[in-house]
From TrEMBL:
Entries under InterPro entries matching the protein: Cro/C1-type_HTH, Lambda_DNA-bd_dom_sf
Residue ranges of domain HTH cro/C1-type in the record: 39-94
Superkingdom as given in the UniProt entry: Bacteria
Any Pfam family hit: HTH_31
PROSITE patterns: HTH_CROC1
Annotated protein name in UniProt: HTH cro/C1-type domain-containing protein
Amino acid sequence: MIERAKVSQVRHTASVSSGYGVAMRDDVTPEGAAFAELLRSARKDAGLLQDDVIQRSGVSRSTYLRWEAGDGVRPDLRYVRKVCQVLGINPRRAAIALGLVTPADLDLAPDESEYDPMVVEINRVLADASVPDAARAALRHTLDAAMNLWRTAVAMPEPHEPRGADLARRRTPRA
């Protein structure tokens, strides 16, 4: 892993687009590029135009366009927070993109969007106190059985759906 101080010193030239769609050359740092990508993807996911974000956040047009172009190495953090609120970005994610902290510094769990939707749903069911204990226990039992089946399948020289004989060899006594 490259130290933050070294990363900050690394600059490269990249082609970026201005708010007017005109390609230009600009010095972009890795942090600026990461922050720009975070803003662009969140804005597009929210279905907003650059002008919408500018108007709702109160950030100047030139500032926001520079940020989306990758020139966001030393932005005013008060304005970063306003833009994050408009775009629904966790400000900690912006701090990571800007290279101010690492996920480990924040002990930050991955976004749910990084997981399969089924995993997110299972996690919610298991954490939901309104779901009866018996139902949660049944889900855990089912997941345990599915994991055992999966372990059996991937342990085979040529993975395939396990048959009865395969399962009998892997079965372990329950405590």
